[in-house]
Amino acid sequence: MTSALAFDFGEARIGVATGSSELGIPHPVCTIAAVDNDTRFARIAAVIKEWQPDVLVVGMPLSLDGEPHKVSFLARKFGQRLYGRFNLPVVYVDERFSSAAASQALNETGVKGRKQKTALDQVAAMQILQGWFDGAIIEPPADPPGQPD
């Protein structure tokens, strides 16, 4: 059995979900909103300590045509930092439709509009983790030309 933590990376907030490959059912954990990276990673460290995952799954935002954009590169860098700080395997999952699917799932449960904000990132992380359960692993994009790593 492999336990995982999934991250819906965003510049303002990071949704987190957990689950095991044996059960294949994701569960929401928390949303991390922090002003600076040190605070974000301190909160992530606490979550990793609590849940003890075997693997970290990062959602990779891509444009509708599958091409990377600015946030794709930020998500890749986030995954690299996770690996560097916690020495756990990091895999990436295509998350093009995770936020839309999360919003639809919340709508279906009666949570609409502004009320979705607190749960949306966690539900998107659950969608990302479900993608990992389903084997939807992708390679992260390379650096754009002329960009330092």
TrEMBL record:
Entry GO MF terms:
hydrolase activity, acting on ester bonds; nuclease activity
- Keyword Chloroplast assigned: no
Its GO biological process annotations read: rRNA 5'-end processing
What region holds the YqgF/RNase H-like domain? 2-102
Class in the EC hierarchy, top level:
hydrolase
> Record's PANTHER family?
POLYNUCLEOTIDYL TRANSFERASE, RIBONUCLEASE H-LIKE SUPERFAMILY PROTEIN (PTHR33317:SF4)
Q: Which family does it belong to?
A: Belongs to the YqgF HJR family.
Name the record gives this protein: Putative pre-16S rRNA nuclease
What is the organism field in this record? Silvimonas terrae
